[in-house]
Write a structure and sequence with these properties.
The protein is of the alpha+beta class. Strands 1, 2, 3, 4, 5, 8 and 9 form a seven-stranded mixed sheet that branches. It has a two-stranded antiparallel ribbon with strand order 6-7. The protein has a two-stranded antiparallel sheet with strand order 10-11. Strand 4 and strand 5 form a beta hairpin. Helix 7 packs parallel to helix 9. It starts with about 25 loop residues before the first helix and ends with a helix.
Length: about 600
């Protein structure tokens, strides 16, 4: 073990002296094991590629594993997952499933100390098995059953038919011991008790465990892993492997649970919070890495044309808009990722009737996942296009990053469904109050900071007003429909667009508030404040521009303000252009870790040797 990492870059505070002496993640990922395959091995795929992924994960675990789970050391886990996402998105995926989606529920739902220690120390790698093929991407209505057997004091875990198969967990590679948190419908005395969670060994070095049927799926190009379908054929799960979360089954009293079956199912689905923190972290990391690659490339690249002989690429307005917009997205995603881990990785566990996080916190956490994923997919796509043909090739990493972002459109919770659920819960007042209207309209002649909507002092008010109006619109549509006796399903279906917009407006509002409150404390020590403010301005103006017609129609912007949006973004980009090198440094991508031709100091040599 080395001394504790002292990384103090973006979003990282110095490691307290009481922290364990974890090895420096940057040094770990600098090992030659993480060099991309080259020469004849460059095109490896399928089981060979998967074996490399797990070899890398095992190597990391050998160096970081201890009896104390990393979720109890969130700053270190954040940094580890950030660098994993930058260096190898497949490794990131395996690591977050193990440390967050397996150990998270084990800690939160009360696994035995022995099981937690075994998970933390290895050699098994964790997975999460919730989604079933017949339910699409939904973890609701799970049909896998865990039937209580009082004689054996164990559960009989069984897949009733092919549509209840767990799909698509990455557990298909032979020779790798795996254990999973499995979601199944608890049945006691023939009565369903809601969805529970169980720790279930899936396979050892020899093969699948008894009763576990693992069917590997064909390789995939983006985010390659050993995906599979899993069925359980009457697998015996001892009672101490049930993550009981305060529930009990005893001979005299029978089944006792402080939650009713519906609440128990919601509580089990709430394990997604551990994923949301990790996903936001990974999305912010790949957005920073992609922007660092593309921005550095544009800074040194020269273009030739009729009107611009030997002009730096970054002098072109289209490159500035693409790359400074991507940088602004990376900064925003990083701010949101810190908030997400602070919310989602909360330990120790809160015991009692109010198990889990409050609905408002869960809503915010889920929308942080959605927002960081959308920012990543849009920004990485911009970077790929800005790099021209080079951006297409996997060796330059951008395709890997885009594949990761695309995967989390649905993985970890479907983004569109999360937005819809958020909109519905807000419309029905579930732990939500819309932003209050201002006491009085702004007087442009009054002294003090400007609250004009496109100036920093007016950003929060603009986004709060948008959210408030969309909430009023949705509530009114639902009221009118109910008064007319519209079928509830038809009414909700007709209003789905408004619910999704409300969810988006809430996400945009909390994003802008996070930028206002967090960007300067997190980044201000590393770049001049006007530069940082221009990055925030670009992000806010791009969000405004995406909805300018509705904002104009609602009277929240004037026609002149809408007309000037593009010019304002261009002006901010022009002010940022002279600071390109400092902006690359601000992205906090350790030199040498992002191995690719465009990321090298000598890109031409890298491409021609």
């Amino acid at each position: 073990m080395t001394e504790p990492t002292r990384r103090t870059a973006v979003g990282h505070a110095p490691v307290p002296p009481t922290e364990p002496a974890f090895p420096d993640p940057a040094k770990l990922f600098a090992d030659v094991l993480f060099d991309p395959p080259a020469g004849p091995d460059a095109a490896i795929a399928g089981p060979v590629r998967d074996a490399l992924t797990y070899r890398r994960v095992r190597w990391l675990h050998e160096r970081i594993s201890g009896e104390d789970p990393l979720l109890r050391h969130p700053a270190y886990l954040r940094e580890l997952l950030e660098l994993a996402a930058m260096v190898d998105p497949s490794v990131f995926h395996v690591m977050f499933l193990h440390h967050c989606m397996t150990l998270g529920p084990a800690l939160d739902f009360g696994a035995s100390p022995r099981d937690i220690a075994e998970l933390a120390l290895g050699p098994s790698i964790g997975a999460a098995l919730m989604t079933e093929v017949g339910r699409g991407n939904s973890s609701a209505g799970i049909r896998t059953e865990a039937v209580w057997d009082p004689a054996g004091e164990a559960f009989d875990l069984h897949t009733p038919d092919a549509e209840a198969s767990k799909y698509p967990p990455n557990v298909g590679l032979s020779g790798v011991p795996r254990v999973a948190v499995v979601g199944a419908r608890i049945v006691v005395d023939g009565i369903g008790r809601g969805t529970g969670l169980f720790l279930v060994p899936l396979r050892d070095e020899v093969g699948p465990c008894p009763g576990v049927v693992i069917t590997p799926r064909p390789p995939t190009g983006l985010l390659p892993l050993d995906y599979a379908a899993v069925r359980f054929e009457h697998v015996r799960v001892p009672a101490d492997r049930w993550l009981r979360d305060g529930a009990t089954i005893t001979a005299p009293e029978g089944h006792q649970d402080p939650l009713d079956p519906a609440a128990r199912s919601r509580r089990s689905q709430g394990q997604s919070r551990f994923a949301w923190g990790a996903i936001a972290t990974g999305m912010a990391a790949v957005t920073r890495a992609a922007t660092a690659i593309a921005l550095a490339h544009a800074h040194r690249r020269r273009t030739v044309g009729r009107f611009d002989p030997e002009t730096p690429a970054l002098a072109h307005r289209n490159q500035q808009r693409a790359l400074f917009g991507a940088h602004a997205a990376a900064l925003t995603a990083t701010v949101l990722a810190r908030r997400a881990t602070d919310l989602c990785w909360r330990l120790p566990v809160h015991r009692g009737a109010d198990r889990g996080l409050p609905p408002a916190t869960m809503r915010t956490a889920s929308l942080l996942k959605v927002t960081t994923d959308r920012l990543a997919e849009q920004a990485v796509s911009r970077c790929r296009r800005a790099c021209g043909a080079f951006g297409f090739f996997a060796e330059n990493r951008l395709i890997d990053y885009q594949g990761l972002a695309m995967a989390f459109n649905a993985a970890g919770g479907d983004n569109q469904l999360i937005l819809l659920d958020a909109g519905w819960s807000m419309a029905t007042g579930v732990d939500y109050e819309p932003p209050a209207a201002p006491d009085a309209p702004h007087d442009p002649d009054a002294p003090g900071p400007s609250t004009a909507p496109l100036e920093r002092g007016g950003w929060a008010g603009l986004f709060r007003a948008r959210e408030r109006l969309l909430h009023e619109e949705l509530v009114e549509r639902l009221r009118i429909g109910a008064e007319r006796g519209t079928d509830p399903f038809v009414l909700r279906n007709d209003c789905a667009d408004a619910a999704e917009r409300l969810g988006e407006a809430y996400a945009a509002r909390i994003t802008v508030e996070a930028l206002i409150h967090d960007a300067r404390p997190m980044f201000g020590h590393r770049v001049a404040e006007p530069v940082l403010d221009d990055l925030c301005l670009v992000r806010v103006l791009e969000e405004v521009a995406a909805h300018d017609g509705r904002l104009l129609a609602a009277g929240l912007l004037t026609a002149d303000e809408v007309r000037t949006l593009s010019a304002r973004i261009d002006a901010a980009c022009a002010r940022l252009a002279p600071h390109a090198r400092a902006l690359v440094d601000l992205l906090d991508v350790p030199p040498g870790l992002v191995r690719g031709a465009l990321a090298g100091d000598d890109p031409i040599g890298d491409l021609t040797t």
